[in-house]
User: What shape does this take?
Amino acid sequence: MRSDSVKKIALERIKTLFEQAETTNDLKLSNRYVFLARKLAMKANISMPRVYKRRYCKHCYNYFIPNKTCQVRTTKKKIVSYLCLKCNKRTRIPYHTRTKK
Ligand SMILES: [Zn+2]
Assistant: This one.
């Protein structure tokens, strides 16, 4: 019971941290928010929600702002590729078109 509410609160805080990371113009501050959000997720033992997982670099945790801190490309293999301009590595996220079924 207790851990459930801890997770809820952590999720809430992660949400507000990413909201703030989005609104601020200070890159250092956005990276700090990402750092804090990750710490929170780790402490509450939850995985980062998918929406937020793709907003920062998998390798150096740099906050992604398209055409500013990263380049976004889609490939023929149905992958969204984020090229981080800080560490020059790619974070790849597959996308599926679920038209069948
Ligand atoms: Zn990076």
Observations:
- The chain has a mean pLDDT of 92.
